[in-house]
Amino acid sequence: MVNRARPMAGRRNAALAAATGVVAGLLFLYPTSLNHSTGSSAGAAVTGPASVRGSASTANASGTGASVEPVSSTTGSRTISGATANTRYGPVQVQITVAGGRITSANAIRYPSESGRDRQINSFAVPELDAAVVSAQSAGIDTVSGATYTSDGYRQSLQSALDAAHLA
Fold it and tell me: Does the reported pTM lie above 0.70?
């Protein structure tokens, strides 16, 4: 008597192993916050001209920069726009107002808004990021869940504004 179940089990195991390999391969290709770079080669890269209003120079070592408004004679504050950070979904640019060495306000003046999904995500993410900057007084703010690319670009533009304001 011949046992025919054995060859079928071998084929089944081979098919299962192949399917497992395909699924594992796809998981490695899926973009997550752990396997993407936020440097200049992928993700968000800071770009933009070193345009300066007023007399302070804001060009950093990489040649990009931020724009600085002159100090207001009535309030003693100045407004600094960070360099534009290009993200996967569009540019992000942050503007801060500084008075007495403190950040008094932060506003994203450019952020992705092309699609309905961009508008939905950034309608809650941008105000949260703006408030976090004033609270933290630095670029050390948390990523907003669901808005990783916007958060990364926001921090990069914010850091260039802080550098221009000499607030580190």
Answer: no
> To which residue do tokens 């004679």 refer?
73
Beta bridge partners of 97: 79, 105
Mean pLDDT by 10 residues, the chain (168 residues): 59 66 53 36 32 32 53 74 96 96 96 95 97 96 96 97 89
Amino acid at 126: V
Extract the tokens encoding 35.
């396997």
Q: Is the CB of residue 68 less than 8 Å from the CB of residue 164? A: yes
DSSP string of the chain, one letter each residue: ----HHHHHHHHHHHHHHHHHHHHHHHHHS--TTS---SSSSS-EEE-----SSS-----TTS---EEPPPPTTT-EEEEEPPEEEETTEEEEEEEEEETTEEEEEEEEE---SSHHHHHHHHHHHHHHHHHHHHHTSS--PPPTT-HHHHHHHHHHHHHHHHHTT--
Tokens of 32: 């997550």
What local confidence, expressed as pLDDT, does residue 65 receive?
A: 61
Q: Please list the residues that pair with 46 across neighbouring strands.
A: 85
